[in-house]
């Protein structure tokens, strides 16, 4: 990763389209896509290697790992972390939130690094998944009031908390394209900065 101005991680990268797109448009940034599911990463890693052979995407890497248990090699490397439309345990860790997961984010972020999370939830269709993690309310105000104290205690300062419009979504992922055709999903974006370490 030497020679790059910044390092950015995409946790729960899925098919990795977000990483590949930004790796091409931001060659000064080293992009790392992380996902616990190895299957979609195989195709993306093959594509990245093929593009590397053509002199492109030398700044993209994909790693099969759990977001809750990232290796020590990632400690302090990330200037930016993105979590786009999390699902399963990652959704619970983000919205509940989980202090162990927040500690992991703080561990892998560089000083003053940022983490940006965008969620797209349908209160009815996703009801069982929300109940599984004890997320009872989904209105923006309730989520924010529950999240902020935990993130603050973990060392994060809030930069942005807002509802998002579909036209603002720029991840380029397959999941995002599905969201564009759904009128019932609530889109929220949260952005935090890691407080200076003392």
How does this model look, in words?
Helix content is 34%, strand content 28%. The protein contains 7 helices and 7 strands; from the N terminus they run E-H-E-H-E-E-H-H-E-H-H-E-H-E. It has one domain: Vaccinia Virus protein VP39 (Rossmann fold). It is of the alpha/beta class and 198 residues long. A 7-stranded mixed β-sheet has the order 3-2-1-4-5-7-6, sandwiched between helices.
What is shown here, in short?
The chain has 198 residues and is an alpha/beta fold.
Strand order of the largest sheet: 3-2-1-4-5-7-6
The named CATH superfamily: Vaccinia Virus protein VP39
CATH topology: Rossmann fold
Largest sheet: 7 strands, mixed
Give the tally of β-strands: 7
CATH second-level architecture: 3-Layer(aba) Sandwich
Instruction: Give the N-to-C terminal Cα separation.
Output: 26 Å
Order of helices and strands: EHEHEEHHEHHEHE
CATH class: Alpha Beta
Determine Rg (CA atoms, Å). 16 Å
Overall 3D geometry? globular
Percent of residues in helices comes to 25-40%
| Total number of distinct structural domains | 1
Which regions are unreliable across 5 or more consecutive residues at pLDDT < 50? Answer: none
Instruction: Give the helix/strand class.
Output: alpha/beta
**Rounded average pLDDT:** 84
Strand content: 25-35%
The number of helical runs is 7
